[in-house]
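Consortium newsletter contribution from the modelling node. Members have asked for a concrete example of what our holo predictions look like. Here is one, prepared for the FE2/S2 (inorganic) cluster complex that several groups have been discussing at recent meetings.
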Amino acid sequence: MSTGTIIAIAIPVLITLAAVVGFGSLRKKDAKGLGHMSRETRNRDAGALNQNLSGSNEARELEKSVAMERVSAGVAVPLPKVPEVWTPPDADAIGVSRRQFLNRSSITLMTLGLSVFGAANIAFLWPRPTAGFGSKVKIGTIDSVNTVINSSSPAVNFAYFSEAQTYLQPYPMDQATQASAEAVYKGATLAGIKQGYVALWQKCPHLGCKVPVCGTSQWFECPCHGSQYNRVGEKKVGPAPRGMDHFPVIIDGQNVIIDTGTVSLGAVIGTDTTGQGLEGPHCA
Ligand code: FES
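And here is the predicted structure:
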């Protein structure tokens, strides 16, 4: 059975269980809260009744003698009062008691907590996309990708692959630049650099605008708040907190694959491994 099927069955079952537990407890607590005495109270009442029974004979004798004295003195003896029949209070007249309020609040909070916990688990187990952005996207063969890089238009030196929301930039392969890159980058980003590529996510690390390229300056220039990055995504100016974020580049045989489900944060401010300066007027 696939993960998707399991989740599709698990969601309604979890929701139904949470609803049954929540409403069941609510009704039970409400029923206990209206006109029902606790066990402690009933035990106390039973104790008091036993005490009264043991002393009732003496009391009855005392009452009888007092009544006889009164009769002999000519005082009218009042008839014993018939006790009122107890009727349970009307729930509507009482409204919501403090106990009911507390019970309902705790049940609601518990149900809410369980729902959030269940939703978080489902989100965690939800399968990642297996195609398109968010997964491993094959953008072409080495030859076809290099052809795009070498003939990218309108801004030469920037190769954009929309299916991966990525600029795949050639990384200078000279010794000094590679040594600088090794001092700054790690893991999958460094592995891609050693193969001659760096994959930059189009999303600006400041507030998420799509960063366009500038053919004249040969930098990335964000029009939203003015952050600018060199050709390999290292931040030059602006409010962005770091360079452009990276995706791992995977070379599988002749295929070039971008893993858009794994994002590495861009280089820290001040990083400049290529020494690329401004090559012309800004666009933004
Ligand atoms: S979103 Fe790019 S600089 Fe603010």
